[in-house]
Description:
By secondary structure, this protein is α/β, with parallel strands linked by helices. Helix content is about 55%, strand content about 10%. It is elongated, with a radius of gyration of 22 Å. Bound molecules: NADP nicotinamide-adenine-dinucleotide phosphate.
Amino acid sequence: MTCFGFIGTGSMGSLLIRRFIDTGMIAATDIIASSKTGISANALAVNTGITIKATNNEIAREADILFLCIKPLEIKPVLEEIRHELSEDKLLVSIAGVVSLDDLTEWSGPGVRCVRLIPSITASQSSGAILVAWGRGVTLEDMTVVKSLLSMIGAPVEIEEHYFDLFADLTSTAPAFFAKMMQEYAAAALRKVDVPAALVESLVQLAMMGTVKILSNEETSFNDLIDKVATKGGITEEGVKVLHDQLPAVFDDVLNATQAKRELLKQRIAEEKNT
Length: 275
Ligand SMILES: NC(=O)c1ccc[n+]([C@@H]2O[C@H](COP(=O)([O-])OP(=O)(O)OC[C@H]3O[C@@H](n4cnc5c(N)ncnc54)[C@H](OP(=O)(O)O)[C@@H]3O)[C@@H](O)[C@H]2O)c1
């Protein structure tokens, strides 16, 4: 029996645990978890039947595969806390943004095999990409286990770690950006008419869901869809022109802003490394 440990049961930790149980990939009885206050972990245990441990050390000691589902700045202190429980028979899986495989390897100690994932909230619908990068010493068996777990809740995409920052914005942060764009589109309509916001938002959501269905057809590209709706000389074309002119700068700013925040976090992590 493989014991799966989770340190951190917040938004993403609890989502992964629930999805692994719901898809039948892991039995609740094979999952142990801890959180900082114990509140989120205990609430999850009541709903799922997983076992909660009072300390991170117990999780590290008992788990064969250990998921770190904590914020980037918590990774180093938690690994310092549990390092003496880690050994070469453990597989460490971090979902934290920004913290590199090199740092994970250094902080977890010699021989511990490390994997980095960037999951997405879209895993709640068993869809979307999950970025995966393998650290030194990870075995073929480790890869098979991790990929089979992930493939039930999304599409694992193995890529080199140096793409993680940018690709995280195309996968993991993207749902928030898409929702924000739709919210602003609805808000623009609401500045023109006095109707219930719920009506306008549901019209936009229905259009978006239909659009996603059309794009799900592998033969439909963004351009195919735009060309079909924005016919030459028509009304839609005028709106597309505005987006074509103004969106590149907006999205450059979005990617620059997220990267600036990542660099800040990396700097704080590096500063802590040197203390
Ligand atoms: N949210 C996303 O869509 C998303 C997507 C991809 C990657 N991620 C990554 O996932 C990680 C977690 O993000 P999140 O959104 O799930 O954050 P979150 O909701 O704030 O959850 C953080 C969890 O970490 C626990 N924690 C903090 N310090 C701890 C400690 N010393 N020992 C044990 N547990 C500790 C917290 O415990 P309490 O519950 O007791 O406070 C909480 O359960 C981050 O590194 C983030 O980069 C998130």
